[in-house]
Amino acid sequence: MRNRYDVVVVGAGPAGSTAARYAAEAGLDVLLIDKRREVGVPVCCGEFNADPAVLAEALPNAPGLDELFPVDPGLVRRGIRGAVAVSPGGREYEFDLAGYTVDRDAFDRHLADAAVREGAVLSVETKFLGREGRRVTTSRGEVEAGVVVAADGPLSPVCRSAGMERCAVLAPAITCRVEGEFGDRLRFSFGNRVAPGGYAWLFPKQGCANVGLGVQGRGTPVPVLLRAFLAGYGFAARDVQAGFVPVSGPIGETVRENVLAVGDAAGHVVASNGGGIAPAMICGRLAGLAAAKHLLHGEPLAAYEREWRSAIGRELLAAARTKRMADRILGSDFLLERAMNLLGGRGIRNVIVFGGLRGR
């Protein structure tokens, strides 16, 4: 690890690795650091990616989708052909949803490897300790950086070092793996006995499924809720992991000083479903390109803020508004049952996948 880089990216998740890839591809010296021993581990994610056509429909102004998606077919663990939403009373609503599940650890390593192939230097077991101007302090020493990319999650120490706000609402989530064959449809289960203020999911993979839930508030701990949900199906959990998902929408400012915020650190999550992989990669690409334009051509870093908001800002804000409105209904199983009955499968798909934007 040298003592100077054009760009230091903190966090080797989808946002950080994509930013590192595009900055390195533009010819910059890039250092990508991650505090974990192994990129992609542990996994706390549903591991589902929507089909590129669905992404293009949901995020029509997002650039670079043809470059970012689809992923290497070798990473796909199950093709998904649809979904089922289960109401508190047990009624099932089917809707179309094309995509695929992945092994998230392998997926993240694939993205980090792509950055390394472009010339980025990857340093694992390297903690971000602080930043003052261009000087970045890590557990492996100090480095100087022209641009620092904060891709270090919803509690981002990098954003804090620049005085940026952090995501206002973090939803507790927990995932696990269960063995078996589960077809090719995602399954979402709603109700306050299952996942208060949120939902539980079962996402099929090859020979197993990713099962988990996300909730709102400080009620029953998520491990207790997960055990109850699994017991209802007779499932045995493996590889249980818990974390937080930012669901309040993007933070107000994602550029300050020489720091760019991306991914969960910036609130780049579709709040109506908790999905963050696609927004993270879209904004990671824009961050890497913005760093290159700034350092190579003198363009202001503030252009990144304008570009990502133009690309997906409207959709992320709409999803956050939909989530806030849905919170009033999710607290009552009676209201939720009625709402799902009124919406039907297509309406539920609109809320979950598109944040309620379609038809407006």
TrEMBL record:
Gene3D superfamilies membership: FAD/NAD(P)-binding domain (3.50.50.60)
Keyword list, A-Z: FAD, Flavoprotein, Lipid biosynthesis, Lipid metabolism, Oxidoreductase, Phospholipid biosynthesis, Phospholipid metabolism
A molecular function (GO) term: oxidoreductase activity
Highest taxon above the source species: Archaea
Short name of one Pfam family: GGR_cat
Residues of the Digeranylgeranylglycerophospholipid reductase catalytic domain: 184-219
GO biological process assignments: phospholipid biosynthetic process
Name used for this protein in its record: NAD(P)/FAD-dependent oxidoreductase
Species, as recorded: Methanoculleus oceani
